[in-house]
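=== Structure Prediction Worksheet ===
Name of assembly: unnamed complex
Input type: mixed (protein and possibly other molecules)
Chain count: two
Listed entries:
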Amino acid sequence: MTFLNSLPLWGGLAAAGIAVPIIIHLLHQRHRRRTDWAAMELLRRALVIRSGQVRLEDLLILLLRCLVLALVAFAMLRPSLRNENAQILGGEQRVGMVVAIDASYSMAHGKHSKRFDRALEKASEILKSANVGDPVSLVLLGDKTRTLLRGSSYDEHRFREVLENAKTLPEGLNLERCLVETLGLVTELKASIRECYLITDAQAVDWENLSADARSGLESIADDASLFITPVGVDGEENLSVMSFEYVSGSLVPSGTVRFAAEVRNHGRQLSEGGTATLEVDGQDVTRQSIGSIKEGESRMISFYASFDKGGDSKVRVILGPDSLSLDNERQTVVHVREKIRILCAHGEPASGDRPSEVFYLVRALELKKSGESATLDVVRADWQDLDAEDFKEYDVIFLANVPTIAVDVAKRLKDFVGKGGGLAIYAGEKLDAESYNAQLHGGDVNLLPGEIVDMVSFEGDDTRSENDETKASWTIGPIQSDHVLASLAESIPEEGRSAAKIRKVIQVKPDEDSDTILRLSRSDLPLLLEKQVGEGTVLLVTTTADRDWGNLSVHPFFPMMVQQSITHFTSRPGERTVALGAPGKITLAGLQANHQVTLSEPDGEPLAVNLLKGSSGIPYCAIDSDAPGFYEVEPVGLPSSALAVNINAGEADVKVFSSDSLGTALGKPEWVISPQADLAKIISQSREGFDLSRTLLILALLIFLLQGFLAKMYTNRMTGETGDVTESLRKQTVAAARRT
Amino acid sequence: MKAKYLDPDTLSKLGPLDVVTRQVVEGIRIGMHKSPVRGISTEFSAYRQYVPGDQIRHIDWKLYARTQRPFIKLFDAETNFISNLLLDASSSMTFKSGGISKLEYAKYMAASLAYLIVDQRDSAGVGIFDGELRNYVEPKSTMGILADISREMEKVDPQPRTDIAGLLHEFAGRMKRRGMVMIFSDLLDNTEDFIKGIGHLRYRGHNVTVFHILDPHEIEFPLNGVWRFEGLEDDGELVTQPARVRAAYLKELEEFIGTIRSACMKNAADYVLVNTAEPIESVLSSYLLQRTAAAKNR
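=== Predicted Assembly ===
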């Protein structure tokens, strides 16, 4: 016998319920009144006759009342018997089922018929076995469960309507989470027979290496219900998908050339040939490339080059040619193109004689442009002592090169500047006063430095080197370990080229936990380039000089690449405009106030009016709760639009499936798995046994309740209905006397 | 005269009624009650043939003239009676469910009857007993005795244990002439002994009336819930639900009363079941009218 309701809860209530009449009985016994009595002998004789009978009657009534409560409580526990005899006892066979349909986007795969359509057919077939009134839950499985109907009384028309409106979800299958949530639905079912159907395409990526949590989830469900995993069968397993698509490099300025890279993967079991990929910018096809042949299970990186002719956010998308699963054929990103970037370069050491200024190489690197290109970068040079007079709001990026000290006021204004989205790059130098930097820019109210400056460190190696020999006795750019865009840029340079960069001296920095070390020195653990996000802005710290004092980095080819890319990184932050589906996203809108209403366009919905929220840095933003892949675009009145790209989980694109036999073997429970070709209705019918006794128990309780009521009334009537002859004789005597008088 | 237990209202309602005897009584004065001896009276009784020794003046000469036989004319003698009112003052008589206890009720009844008896120039005395005879007021026919009776009644200090039977035997021996004995008691004692006592009194030719005094709760047993009953005669306590044993109790009570009633009838004694909820005058008038009606029918 099993119980459909909580045994501790209802068992406790039953015990309390049964105790009630007993307590009342005991209290009644304790609550006795006293009286003097003369006719004790008569009473004693009456007690001898009646007390035994009274005790029996009391006990009988008490037992019956306790029994009523016990039966009601027992009925509330919903006992279920898996025995044919239960049917004789009047038990009813009520089936509760959870029909969970895998709605991950791989279920949309299919050349002629979609896997999801087959799943819906299976669900209809299963639901036909339910009786009207049976509790049934219908859920879609994706990254989490989507409950379409929860413990609803089965109604064929209603369920058919719900199934007709069911669609696949643009997300992968999170089996572990879904099983936990499905188990919750199973345990909610109040029925003598509980069944759970998992209708899935049995994707190998989900089911082949089942995690311990998923296996435990399945076992828990199987403990509570009859578990049926019903693979739907598939119509092919070929699929090409875009696994990733991102901005790689290039200046995000008008007429600047930008490189994007897309990873295309063949998930199928055959060689893929003849596919194409199209790059689309702001809805216009820019270029189409042949993908070429990709072997089964392999990927190919495809680079796209694009240039932009106007500023603002641009929506960039790569689209593959049509195949059996369309959702994974495209991926998108958003890049922000700046029309004008104002840069302040503050130097701590002006030019003297033939010695160039501290920012000489820096400005050169910034002003590099193709011939005929208009100057996008507006560079202003300033002496470090003039920083007090500069209005930082006029700039997008500030370079501090070998600036000796930072005044308190300057530090505060720099904090405000970075917090609101500005970019700050700090280069070390001989004049840099570590104490001043640490005091004003680290650890306190203003915390801009990526780490504490400890000391200046010179390379201590071969003492035989010449002072001017930069090729010897120095560090170089160490192995690339970060995936930062600047690290990727360094990685794009061959190692021989990288090793040509010689650095003899750096400031030693102890990185903070919230900072990122992008580059390190070779043969040392010392950071060369560090980054820290502060509010909406970014701070880069280069631990060596921007000129040739401490090495030749400023004249190395990597230097202008790094400077240019850092400008793009500071001002456009291409990676920040792309999020995964379901992850929280936001579009910041500087220049507007919080609570300002803007229009939000979603990929598959009507434009919505939303209010902006206030960000931690004070810049308002529009929160994006994505439920579909594509571009989310905010269009404030009078301002350029801002966009966010949302991409699906590429892992779900591997549509290869497990056969039923393999699935059963992998699970170690072949009985859980029903082959797509099996007679599902017959299997369901044969598996059902169990009867709910609660109705019988309630009827029995009612009958006993009526019986005890009848008995109690009968006993009471017998007591009150028997008037003594004594009273009667007295009454007659009085009447006769009255007549005589 | 100032007597606590003589209630003017009660007495005024009982005023026209007489206490008549059921059987003949022996008195020393001429009264309103039949005497076992023939005597001077206006009531003709019978004729008897003259036998030597009879006074010649008692011969009915008119009858002799008609029959030529001498007959003596006999007349019923009428006398007064002596009554003893025996009042049970045991602890059980102190029970009361309402305003008045059985004992108080009995005192009022006895005092009222004593007044009626003395008022009709018969003699009334009172014996108050519990385990033994505690107080006794010798019967007198003067009104002064009523004050004595009332005073003695006020002195009553109820004690456990009733031995009515012994008392009845004692009185059967004490009363030299046939008189009247009225017993006021709840009779919660040994019934068999009591019946023997009644028999003894009747054997000695006394008129016996038993006023069986019970409280309405004792008669109806109307209690509900759980009760602890504490005996008034040092007879322990009982805890029960009266409602559940009511039927059995009433059956026992009925048997108890039936036994006493039957014994009284068998011994030609009067039995009056008294509910203390009833007004005393109602009970007494009912009884006295019954007696009067019975006397006329004889």
